[in-house]
């Protein structure tokens, strides 16, 4: 999948806000995702944006969990905020996840392991739905996002060494085109598109915003 066009994402006729009722059915979610038995392949959908930086480098495999929580008003997306003292991406909003270990069977195993380590979310509370497209990062990772519904009674237990906060944002809010901001930045002599969401008290950008953009684009296709 090529980089989503910001104008298309904002066009009312093609990117209307997904209301809570529309967001809820699992059939809609599953139809938007790569099935669990057929995970996506590299390169990431955003590779063209980074081709001059990454080149032909082999990226390290990584995975994140995109957790969806059923609430009275619809589905919420669960995020973490990393602690300020981390070596990479300190203080940033992210999904639970990380680099794949040699013992991980697949991206789903990586996402579940990291979610248990970071926020105490164990497999028994997770219903995997499918995969989004891979997302490549400047830091050298090919990230496979796993979308899953999690138990409504899940109580996060953040690892204080990694996670400063766990919070939720309604999927309906994230899907509102007015809440997506796309801007151009110059990096290494080339203009690149940066996506941002700005819910109250938080800034979602970078890989996390890119993964959300991919989810919303696939749900509207």
From TrEMBL:
GO terms for molecular function: coenzyme A diphosphatase activity; metal ion binding. The keyword Cell cycle does not apply. Pfam families: NUDIX (PF00293). Its cofactor is Mn(2+); Mg(2+). The keyword Translocase does not apply. PROSITE patterns: NUDIX. Residues 59-198 form the Nudix hydrolase domain. Keywords: Hydrolase, Magnesium, Manganese, Metal-binding. NCBIfam families: PRK10707.1 (NF007980). PANTHER family: MITOCHONDRIAL COENZYME A DIPHOSPHATASE NUDT8, NUDIX HYDROLASE. This is MutT/nudix family protein. The lineage of its organism: unclassified sequences, metagenomes, ecological metagenomes.
């Amino acid at each position: 999948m090529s980089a989503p066009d910001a104008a298309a994402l904002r066009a009312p006729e093609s990117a209307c806000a997904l209301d809570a009722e529309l967001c809820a059915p699992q059939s809609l979610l599953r139809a938007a995702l790569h099935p669990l038995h057929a995970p996506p392949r590299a390169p990431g959908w955003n590779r063209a944006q980074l081709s001059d930086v990454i080149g032909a480098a082999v990226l390290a495999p990584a995975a994140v969990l995109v957790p969806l929580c059923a609430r009275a008003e619809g589905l919420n997306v669960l995020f973490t905020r990393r602690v300020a003292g981390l070596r990479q991406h300190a203080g940033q909003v992210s999904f639970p996840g990380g680099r794949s270990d040699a013992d991980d069977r697949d991206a789903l195993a990586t996402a579940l392991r990291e979610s248990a380590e970071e926020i105490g979310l164990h497999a028994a509370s997770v219903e995997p739905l499918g995969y989004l497209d891979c997302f490549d990062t400047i830091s050298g990772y090919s990230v496979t996002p796993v979308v899953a519904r999690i138990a409504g009674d899940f109580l996060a237990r953040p690892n204080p060494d990694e996670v400063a906060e766990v919070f939720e944002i309604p999927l309906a809010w994230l899907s509102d085109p007015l809440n997506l901001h796309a801007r151009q930045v110059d990096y290494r002599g080339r203009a690149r598109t940066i996506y941002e969401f700005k819910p109250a008290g938080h800034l979602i950008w970078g890989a996390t915003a890119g993964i959300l953009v991919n989810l919303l684009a696939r749900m509207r296709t």
